[in-house]
Every structure is written in C-alpha cells, then in structure tokens.
Amino acid sequence: MGTIQTLPGTRDILPEEIGYWQYVESIATQILSRAMYYEIRPPIFEQTSLFERGIGEATDVVGKEMYTFSDRGDRSLTLRPEGTAGVVRAYLQNNLYAAGGVQRLWYCGPMFRYERPQAGRQRQFHQIGLELIGTADPRADVEVIALATDILKTLGLQSLKLDINSVGDRNDRQRYREALVNYFLPYKEELDPDSQDRLQRNPLRILDSKDKRTKEINENAPSILEHLGDASKKHFDQVQQLLSDLGIEYNINPCLVRGLDYYTHTAFEMISDDLGAQATVCGGGRYDGLVEELGGNATPAVGWAIGMERLIILLKQLQSSPEMTPDIYLVSRGEAAEGQGLILAQKLRKEGLTVELDMSGSAFGKQFKRADRSGAIACIVLGEEEAENKTMQLKWLQSKEQQAMTQAELFTKVGELKEQLDRHKRTMNHSTQ
C-alpha cells in the first residue's frame, strides 16, 4: 500500500514556512486591535442557503465552485467559500447589533472553492478579513482601506496599487446591467464561453474576463460611473477626497466590479507588483444590502479580505522566514541527568525563557553540535556527576565560556541570566546588521 497523499488543491503548511504565517497573523492582530476590531471565529461549514442568498446564485462561486454536501440529517451544508456571509449571519444570530453603534470584526481561517489549483490559489485557501457593520459613512470605507494598507506595508510590501470603483446602489446597478446587456448583445458570438453564459445571469462579471478578445470588447463598454445616481456620486466623491487627505494614492478602475452580488457603492482591490507581475492581495468593498438579505434590518457595512497564500509568496520573495531559536539548549546524558534535565527545562520555560531539550540520548559531542546549529545563546549541560550532585554547567556557545553552579543557584540568578541573554541577543543582532 502506498502512503496517503493530500488532495489536489490542498497542501501542508510545514514548520519551515509557518514563521511567515505567524508573522502575518501577529502584524494583522496588532494593527486591527489598535483600531478596536475584535476577532470572531464562525464555523467552517454553514447551511448552503446562507451562501446562495448572500453571495448570489448567479455567481461563479455559488454556481461552480462551492463544496456542498448533505449530512446525515439530510441538510445541505457548504464549506465556506468566503468569510463575510458567515460573519453577518453571526452578527444577526447573536444579536451583536443590540449593542448599538458599529461592530468592528475580523477573522482569519480557511476557505474552500473548487478551482484549478495554481500558485497562490488552492482549493483550501486562507484569508484574513474584516467587516465594519453599522454605518454608511464614507469614512468607514476609507478606514478599512487604510488598515489594509497599514498591514501590507508593515509586512514589507511597498509597491502597492489601489484600484477603486463605485458599483452604486441597487437601482444604479440595474440601470447599468441593462446598458451592459444592450452593449454586449451584438458581440455575443465573439465573447468567450463563460462571458456568453454571464450575459443574462451576471453581465457585470464579463468586465472581469481575462480572455483577450473579451478584454478588447470591454474597452468600449459603458462605465458604471456614467449610471450612478446623485447619492452614489456623492459617496464616491467623499471616499476619494478622504483617501487623498490620508495621502493614499488610488486609481479609478471602471471595470472593477468584484465577483459577489452583495457589493454596493465602493469596491476596491490592492495590487502588488513586488513579484514583477501584478497580483491582487486584498479585495473588498461596501455591501449595504447583505444584512437585510439575510433576514436583518437594513444595515450598511464594508469590509475586505486578504489572501494569505498569495501574500506568503510575496513575503518569501522579499524576506527570509522569521526563525524560532531557543535561548537555551539543554543537553543531558544518563537516566538521572535526563530526568533532571526535563524538570529544569520546564522550570526555565515557566520563567519565560525559550528552552530546547535534546532528547536524542546520543553522546555529548553530537548534542553539542546540535546546540550550535540550534542558534541558542547558551547551553546547560547535565551529566551523571552533575545529576548526582544536583549541579550543572552553563556554557555560552559563542564565547565558549563555561561556569558551574548548583541547579538551585540557577533559579536564584534567573533575572541575571535573562539580562545576560538579552545582552548577547543585542550583540548578535548588531553584528548581523
């Protein structure tokens, strides 16, 4: 029998790569917490109707890409293809609106879509996203854009381009939809098969086509900006002014409509060319009709999602993985010494130190080589003699200086030990700069 492999479109995130993921999550947590966004963790699977109603049955996500199945209770369930619908469902089910004002929420986790796997796009993929629910103020649109910009730039992405557009309200979209259908009908046979299928179901999505001929036809398509009502124009103008006030550069892209039905007014994407080819790393916008569509009162909202896989690819090009290294590497040999070593390691960890315990049982020479490779600053050595006398050797790996002390004495000097470790870290960091 062969070994069992991962399914197509899924992959293991291994320890050698996990540093990038933890780094991204820690930066996002810091920045969003400072803006008073609270983390929420909805379930990974939901009732299928949540996504059919929320995302729209005419979208490619619902029509082609969802992982849907029946459980033993004959309920139709779907692995979440995106995060917003589940957050809004949680907002309604748990009466988060009862607190009044706005709700600032963010999430992080896996999503699922049946697509052709490729670099940066998996069938199980991961997103960090946020939702600001409860205000139609253009400042909300700009706040979420500014936070995404802060996160991406803090992570090291500098070559960012912000594309924005307005998709108007429902009345604007309906007028625009009719104008698009009238424009595309004469070109129907020249459109790619997917765009032909979208012509009646979801003509706005034709503007996203990557087909060469369809893109040529799109160049002369009517612009949504020509079909906006006065209220939508005012909202979009205010968003642009606030972005300029914050010094955030932007480009108006009339073809940017986003792929989900719930978007209204502001739509945006953040694109990076740090890889040499443009890649969308963040997308979002306003969705003022979704809460009502899912059974709540009319409630405006805005949000975005950052794709983790594509972001990690960018970070790997820009910087090495943040390494996890121990403060102390503990080597021991002999039954008594090995038992005492485990106890010492645990006590030091409780004091806030990072300790790696060698469990190989090999000769001291091999253990010392592993200590050097670990990147540790110091090494604690326990042999049979030390175990019998309840002593230990503290060896500084860079200078090779070594001192003997009792195990009890170590913990009376733990504050001094931390200071010495910090000095060594500062010296090492300075020498590598």
From TrEMBL:
Belongs to the class-II aminoacyl-tRNA synthetase family. It holds the Pfam family tRNA-synt_His. GO terms for biological process: histidyl-tRNA aminoacylation. This is Histidine--tRNA ligase. It comes from the Bacteria. GO terms for cellular component: cytoplasm. HAMAP family: His_tRNA_synth. The lineage of its organism: Bacteria, Bacillati, Cyanobacteriota, Cyanophyceae, Oscillatoriophycideae. SUPFAM superfamilies: Class II aaRS ABD-related, Class II aaRS and biotin synthetases. The gene is hisS. L-histidine binds at E82, G83, T84, R113, Q127, E131, R258, Y262, Y263. The keyword Aminoacyl-tRNA synthetase applies.
